[in-house]
Model the fold of this input.
Amino acid sequence: MESPTYVLAIDLGTSGPKVALVSDRSEVLGTATESVDLMLDGTGGAEQDPHAWWSAIVTATRQTVEASPGARITAVSVTSQWSGTVTVDAQGAPIGNAIIWMDSRGAGHLKDLRGSGPIRIEGFGPLRVRRWIATTGGGPSGSGKDPIAHILFLRHERPDIYRAAEKFLEPKDYINLRLTGRAVASYDSIALHWLTDNRDPDSVDYDDVLLGYAGLERDQLPDLVHATEVIGGLSATAADELGLPRGTPVVAGTPDVSSAAIGAGTVRDHEAHLYIGTSSWLTCHVPYKKTDLMHSIASLPAAVPGRWFAANEQETAGKAIDWLASILYPNRDGDTSVYGDLNGIAATVAPGSNGVIFTPWLYGDRTPVEDANLRGGFFNQSLDTGRDEMVRSVFEGVAYNTRWLLETVERFTKSRLDPIAMVGGGAQSDLWAQIHADVLDRTILQRVEPLWVNVRGAGMLAHAALGHVEWEDIDAMVSTSATHVPNQANRAVYDRRYDTFRKIHKANRGIYRRING
Done:
């Protein structure tokens, strides 16, 4: 048998990069991780240091390469957190910190951009919303967490940075600039700027009218390529820092939502995956462009040629468990065993958490309702309520919100999504997988090595782009570690709790708006 070829795959997440070699048989080896600080300022600001990103990537890459001597590396492929903004100067150096997907400080500058009129449609003027929906499939969200809002924030509140900017780049595209010296965006990574004509997912370009709405010129933004395009070779500087051969091909790559779909083995239309990391999403590929403005779901260009994917996101998922751990174990100092402890505690409590319900909106939410004012909370505690019920209710609360997403996505696709592949850090928990199976009433497939799903997806994208594998063969290459079938004995209790969860949102959304608006 011919020896495998490998792609050096880089996944820049919010917590830091993961790096590994991915073979053309979908094997992952030589894995390494590094952490990067997240800076929250209490006013909606969320930033990271691009220099810290690069330093962490260099360290993790060298560890990966050294762990696999003799591996035949044929390309580099990057995936990353999405909906961020890195401002770079004419030399390609970052100006200040990156503004990441959690940052909402630009929300106050969106009103003029979204248009005016006596009637507003989900915050949009009627004329502008028609243009956005017809052209892009969506439009700037009122949360202020899209890159266009970041750019407006810089224009109005950091004018020195704005004036010094040569380009505004997504995190993935900034890393590619460091790798090759070329500033480009892929058709999928640019989509959340809401400035491109996405009607043909294989031929995306900026729309002059939408650029005019935003007051931007084309040359302030990167050139556009397909996610599968080789954008250049490793520069001498980058190659020497990473310990790789100069000129190694770099594939444009894709943001984390699309890489997770590929890495989960859900490349075909209407095959769904649920990713649970800091945030989460439930999505699938579709063969059409479509928008549900009321529920903030649209089909956007995918990394898979000729396809769109149904885009949605739950803002806080695994981060809710992190938050809980920080309260219960304030001196844990990076001890990850606490997650096993929480999992064990939750397993001792009967489904339904003895009536306690947790809402996971610790940082607002984006879909199926867009509302930056929402907040998390525990409901229905009594003097008999203990720590254990509250712990389990956090696991269940994330699943209730996922069910809300599932109902919306299934209406959008007009398809029953079953089974659903579960990936990301949350998929390491057998308990959480079973809770999702029971709450969603869907079979859950826990994929192997779920923490490395984005890395696998970035690697397999590059292998497909280079002709090492066929797109239609990727799904069969991804294995399942466990299958969780819904336990019908829990159906009634979870249906009641979910119904109450939705009513809690309806009853309290006005209160959240008054407190946090």
